[in-house]
Amino acid sequence: MDESIYYKRTIVKELVPSQVLDAPRSVRVYLPPGYQELMSYPVIYCQDGEQFFNFGRIATQMNRLIYDEGVDPAIIVGVDVDTATRTSEYAPEGSRFAAYCRFFTQELLPYVEQKYPVRTRAQERILAGDSLGGTVSLHIALDYPHLFTNVISLSGAFLELSRARAAEETDLSWLRLFMLIGLDEREVSTGRGTFDFVEANRLTKRLLEARNCRLTYVEKPGKHLWGFWQTELPAAIKHFLS
């Protein structure tokens, strides 16, 4: 197959109004090959939208999966974030965390669903995030299970507050989670300090399994970098769309 078709991507930029946040939020929307408004599509909502598209190459990866592996076409919504406020929006102790989660569930979803033919069942929405993006994705699913039941976490920053939040639940059999962690992530430097992400993910894995989460857990050599996540992203997408 001519590989140039993988790079023919339709990506629409949108500005989502928000009364919850202090400014509109830019998002980018990938429309799959053969996109038709009369059809309906599962949808992947990505934190760190710009990075998922630029460094994760998620649009190209999705094209390849659709053309080569028969994966169901999906719409992808990448929600951009300002690096200056990222921690405050994505970390559960952050000053903007509650507002961001409200924006995501109360403003972003209705906006996307009004403009695009995305499916609206929780089972056909997927949340995706790397590092703290994985954190906020899990918290949104736990707090809004009627909206989201599927999460892709690429080296999620599942520190003490996130583990405590998961421990509050008694039955997570409704939650499908794909967790990836790199074995070279023993000392990850973040704006909140240096952490052992391998241990944090292993502890979270045990908590989730004890609550019957439908967990796919992948541990392999890799660093806390997009170079690692990009190569593993197709398997995560296939897990939910095949």
UniProtKB/TrEMBL annotation:
It comes from Paenibacillus xerothermodurans. Transmembrane segments: none annotated. Pfam families: Esterase (PF00756). This is Esterase family protein. PANTHER family: ENTEROCHELIN ESTERASE-RELATED, IRON(III) ENTEROBACTIN ESTERASE.
